[in-house]
Amino acid sequence: MARCYILLGQRRRVNDGTGDIGNSHGGGIPILVLVLAPVLPPLLILLLLLLLLLSSLRPVTRRKHSEPRGADCGGAGGDAEQHGGGVGVMGTKLGMMTYFEPEGGAAVPVTVVGFREGNVVTQLKTAATDGYDAVQIGYRRVRDTKLTRPELGHLRKAGAAPMRHLQEFRLRSLDGLEPGQALVLDHLFKEGDLVDVSANSIGKGFQGGIKRHNFRRGPMTHGSKSHRALGSIGAGTTPGRVYKGKKMPGRLGGTKTKIRKLKIVKIDSELRVVMIKGSVPGKPGNLLRIAPAKIVGKNIPKS
């Protein structure tokens, strides 16, 4: 902990190490020395003042910048609530369709997500061994020849079949989970739940600034020579370079994307499909990661 020394003769805030911060006054002892000054020798008075000065230097504990506010005092923020996720699953995007609600017949655009063989627990990670609690899930069974020997050994240790995809989901508790356990979708989600869906978005290749960053094009007539050109990308001699992060033409898509708080409209256990309201990243056949939505703010759909 960082330490600093201050005089007791000044009014200040003191941390006594118990978390209570209060005010301290050190003016009583100097007044006593001044009262006894006429009857004491000058050398003894000087010695007493020197001892008083040395004893008044008391260490005061201060909070480091890296420590959370309220960690060493009784204020709020010491036990901040940590938002943890839940067990999720992996699925395959099949496409989009229109779903008509039984009550009212309202048309709802949904994405159909299918589930191949998999979603089996392949490993449990604990805070004691790995520093955090998490469960590793395997998805989409493949032939043994598609995996390496270390991958096959890792899956055999859990008693699971060869799986192409392995992903982790951090948890607060690992109760009720064991290696080789198959996750049942009906036990994890129900209709009306909100989920976060992440996947690789559709790659669109090299695109210009208009399509990639929604730039506005220039005039098409009246002698203009800059129709879809980018325009100025910076000054000349100063700074003499293009700043990092400048929006310019480049590759669009093909990156990991997450859409939060999507509603599960329908779960069909017989067909092993789930209908999620709205669109999700990727094209049909892409791998999807579906996890319980992290409700942090108030931006929750009304329907």
From TrEMBL:
Xref: Pfam families: Ribosomal_L3
Keywords: Membrane, Ribonucleoprotein, Ribosomal protein, RNA-binding, rRNA-binding, Transmembrane, Transmembrane helix
InterPro entries the record matches: Ribosomal_uL3, Ribosomal_uL3_bac/org-type, Ribosomal_uL3_CS, Transl_B-barrel_sf
GO molecular function: rRNA binding; structural constituent of ribosome
Transmembrane residue ranges: 29-54
Residue ranges, annotated region (Disordered): 63-84, 216-254
GO-annotated biological processes: translation
Segments of skewed composition (Gly residues): 72-84
Source organism superkingdom: Eukaryota
A Gene Ontology cellular-component term: ribosome
Family: Belongs to the universal ribosomal protein uL3 family.
HAMAP family, alphabetized: Ribosomal_uL3_B
Protein name (database record): Large ribosomal subunit protein uL3c
